[in-house]
Design brief:
The structure holds 2 protein chains of 2 kinds. Chain A is α/β, with parallel strands linked by helices. Chain A is built from 10 helices and 10 strands. Chain A has a 10-stranded mixed sheet, sandwiched between helices. In chain A, helix 3 crosses helix 4, helix 4 packs across helix 6 and helix 6 runs parallel beside helix 7. In chain B, helix 4 packs across helix 5 and helix 8 runs antiparallel to helix 11. Chain B is flat, with a radius of gyration of 28 Å. The interface between A and B is medium-sized, with 27 and 24 residues.
């Protein structure tokens, strides 16, 4: 039977990773990750390329299930329920934990249908027009698109497309918003808009953002996790691990690990 | 501050500056420019020759068909008598036009669900990649079988089977005009089935390609919103790949309308108009293959006229395909 997550009791920690190891085939990609994600705050994952921060993020809503050879050891829990338990349906997980991707990826549909897609596949019974409007408003896009809801999503600029993706995700009303480098394809002005939006959204949502941009992590996040990668015995192999997880101000001003200090001061990565 | 010495290379032959550094000259040689010119004319020539070829085929067919066009006019398209006996000659291609259209459409009705379904299965990771590769290869091998082999297979395998099925259809559903005759072997049904198998690889291969070339972000976005796999396929992936799939279907329709050898071996070659798909029928291409060798005078012209009709029909199908694909793309741009 599929477990209904919505009936669970809320806990102080929204998502918890306990000694998580991730394998692709026989290769260990990320090892020994422990994390406690607090509710209604922005948690940033930073670290050099290949450190596994995106991989970890995608485990939180089971999007890695699509990759052949993916295997996870340890436990990832959502309000104390194991996300990888046999009786958990990944589709229902994704209805609670939404995702915004690196590249803006609207569907080849109208702006309206893009936002209405999630509610439709989730059998939303309320007023769809109102939901589309409120989602677009919360994503700070309504004023720019209210006169052209029937136009294709691709007709928008990159920054608008990314806000459309955010509107599309929050239309399903998830509890957690995963953002995988949401600003890396955007210009500085669009980036700033998304960052302001994130600060508004955290009153309602728990946000986890992967970013390459340390200033961005310092600007928007409350908590920061620094990941690093080390070479393995194999030729060219790399395995990611969590170095330090703490309040953002602490990570950027007085980190306890030397590697963190080196990374945030720009000495490597 | 001292001004930096700016080195520059001449852009024109009239500018004479001593070559510097490792490069003898920044000018493009005459030979290189000449090769460019030759390459342009060569490719232009190839492109034009295709157009000339197409026009000349159309012209030859039309000129040879002229006597029949003058003799029968548009009545050729709506009459059913085909009588080459001299003195009583009468030619009407309606049964063949009907047979061409119906056999092709029947084939599509069978092949489109089968082909698009196969394409969906092969573009998703339902089975390990190794098995998928083998299956894709096998589908493509279907296209490599010569059509005369399909015809033989039709005679020895398909016709005995369709005869049994047809008999059952006639006995139980005989009141429907499409099953109103007793099957005698060759006929529309086995021909349409063979055509369906022959166009399957076109539909499958092109549909699979257009599904597989969709950005993976589309699928992830849909799944990330809590859509199921089937919801994602039907609501996002197929609409996004729709123009490719329609293109595949239209290409297959063109192929089915023009296919000759396999059809002529199993359709029964009866120049009669019969609604029943269990009865023998004929198509334009099959008519041409059967009669051309022994035809003379007006019969040749009539056959040419039929060929012209076939060319125009396939042309219409192609224009329609372009139009539909254009409409769909316009919706998404």
């Amino acid at each position: 039977m599929t477990q209904q997550i919505s009936t669970m009791t809320a806990t102080e920690t929204v998502i918890q990773a306990e000694n998580v190891n991730i394998y692709y085939g026989s290769n260990l990609a990320v090892r020994n990750v422990f994390l406690d994600i607090p509710p209604r705050q922005i948690t940033a994952f930073i670290g050099p390329s290949g450190c596994g921060k995106s991989t970890i993020l995608r485990c939180f809503n089971r999007l890695n299930d699509l990759i052949e050879g993916f295997r996870l050891q340890g436990r990832i829990t959502y309000h104390n329920h194991n996300l990888y338990a046999k009786d958990i349906d990944p589709v229902s997980v994704r209805r609670h934990i939404g995702m915004v991707f690196q590249k803006p990826n609207p569907f080849p549909k109208t702006i309206y249908d893009n936002v209405a897609y999630g509610p439709r596949v989730n059998n939303y019974e309320g007023n769809l027009d109102e939901l589309v409007e409120s989602s677009l408003r919360r994503a700070a896009l309504w004023d720019e698109v209210k006169d052209k809801l029937g136009e294709n999503g691709f007709s928008l600029s990159g920054g608008q497309q990314q806000r459309l993706s955010i509107a599309r995700t929050i239309a399903v009303d998830p509890e957690v918003l995963l953002m995988d480098e949401p600003c890396s394809a955007l210009d500085p002005i669009a980036t700033l808009k998304i960052e302001e939006l994130m600060k508004d959204l955290k009153e309602k949502y728990t946000i986890i953002i992967v970013t390459h941009n340390m200033q961005q992590a310092a600007r928007v996040s409350d908590m920061t996790a620094f990941f690093n990668a080390e070479a393995t015995a194999e030729q060219g192999g790399k395995v990611g691990y969590l170095v330090e997880f703490d309040e953002t101000t602490k990570i950027f001003t007085q980190p306890s690990q030397e590697a963190t200090q080196d990374y945030v001061s720009g000495r490597f990565g | 501050m001292a001004l930096a010495v700016i080195k520059y290379y001449p852009l024109f032959r009239s500018m004479t500056v001593t070559p510097q550094g490792q490069y003898a000259s920044r000018l493009r040689s005459r030979t290189e420019k000449g090769i460019d010119g030759v390459f342009f004319s060569l490719t232009a020539g190839f492109a034009i020759s295709i157009g000339v070829l197409l026009l000349s085929i159309g012209l030859v067919v039309t000129i040879n068909a002229l006597p029949a066009i003058q003799a029968f006019g548009l009545k050729f398209l709506i009459t059913s008598e085909w009588n080459p006996v001299s003195g009583r000659e009468a030619y009407g291609a309606l049964p063949m036009i009907y047979g061409t259209l119906v056999s092709a459409i029947l084939a599509l009705l069978i092949a489109v669900p089968l082909g698009v379904g196969t394409a969906i299965f092969l573009s998703e990771n339902f089975i390990p990649l190794a098995f998928r590769t083998v299956l894709v290869f096998m589908v493509e091998l279907l296209a490599a079988i010569p059509s005369v082999v399909y015809g033989l297979w039709g005679i020895f395998v398909l016709i005995p089977i369709t005869k049994e099925i047809g008999r059952w259809l006639h006995n139980t559903l005989g009141w429907i005009p499409f099953f109103s005759t007793m099957p005698r072997g060759p006929g529309m049904l086995p021909a349409a089935l063979v055509l369906a198998i022959m166009i399957l690889p076109i539909i499958t291969a092109i549909s699979r390609d257009s599904l597989a070339s969709l950005p993976p972000e589309l699928r992830q976005a849909s799944l990330g919103l809590g859509a199921t796999r089937w919801g994602t396929i039907f609501r996002v992936l197929i609409p996004a790949a729709f123009s490719g799939i329609v293109g595949a279907v239209m290409l297959a329709l063109g192929r089915a309308m023009g296919e000759t050898m396999a059809v002529t071996m199993i359709i029964g070659n009866a120049n009669q108009l019969n609604l029943s798909i269990l009865a023998p029928a004929n198509t334009i291409s099959s008519l041409l293959a059967n009669q051309f060798a022994e035809a003379k005078d007006l019969q040749v012209a009539a056959l040419m006229y039929a060929a012209l009709v076939l060319v125009i029909m396939t042309l219409i199908v192609n224009i329609l395909a372009e139009y539909i694909v254009g409409q769909i793309q316009a919706k998404y741009d």
